[in-house]
Amino acid sequence: MRDLGAPGVAGKLHFVRPSEPGRGPGGRSPLTFGPFGDVALPRMGSVARSHFVNGQLCTGCHELAVPAPPSARAPDGVLAVDTTSSEWAAGPMNGVPCQSCHGGRLDVANAAGVELNDPNMDLASGWPRPPGSVHDHRFCGPRGERKIGALSLTLALESRVTGDVLEVDATVTNVGAGHALPSGEAMRAMFLLVDARCGDARLAPTGGDVVPEIGGALERRAAGEDWARWPGAAVGQELRVVARTGAFRDYDGPGVFAEGMLAAADKGLPVESIVGARTIVAVAADGLVTLDSPLPSGDVVVRGDPPGAQPTERASRLAFLPGFAFARVLVDDAGRAQAPHFSARDVLFDDRLPPGRPARTRHLFRATCATPTVNARLVHRAFPAWLADERGWSTRDRVLVEVTR
Description:
mainly beta, 23 strands
């Protein structure tokens, strides 16, 4: 292995497994590498390496920058597309190895002190390790069986009714991860989805923050286009309308996206507020839709799936639902959002959650009872809707945290 001091993929790590003449298979005695110095096996040599215990090895794939046109996000013509390792190094958990949280733990012996003449001992026997000191090769992430994302995030709700308006404040905080969330490949995203009901009746959203367009839409149209006809629409789908003020959100993200580091416009996240959502109740042959109530005016409208829908054949379309999104959104030369890291030319926005920093959103609904029920979910999506469509993949968002009050 070489050049761990200059982390990154694309050939910067070189893995070898040297061997020398010996008694092993093929007349060779292979060497293996691991974290412990007291391992001794008769069939192979073992060499301890510190990068297996201090997290340095992870840096090879989890710190990457690519050339890009100079911009406020890439002032030196270098665009950071994965900064997990440097975020960890600069954060409150620096010194805690990555595998302490991400490694699956094993209850095994240490393979030292082998007694070959003892019939009760095999070739890899020894005394037990302290609990939690040995890890297997599984890397537990947000989609893993250990639900590590749920252990790293908190979601708090406050709500109040004034007249016929329900106001909901949601606060999402990264309380457990040593790096910003979500992490890894930048095509990942976390979506906050907020829903309010009186009994079984869903309350109509009337204002507040929304999931941006990276949540996916079946169709999108701007003001001045035809909002009446939607060929391909289906009963039960929604039309959702937002207003844009022209201002940008000055959020507190990681790295250069932290509060005060960039102008709000350079952080790339427009201020959007939902005006209203209407359900499609009928579709004519020419695409003319009938809605449950008239569509309000606004700046942008999308056709999407209703809240809670999980189509089996494609990713659910969440754009402009009451909620929010947390992601590092890369764009390519064509301006396509959530581009893969190898085609990235700029960052549209990066409002991922750094360790310990809360993100607050506000959502308004038309209340039809004195004590509505509010449900909020924070879900993880592994890849964008456009990629799922392109590859024919089905995807289901994984719920990380859910709160009802």
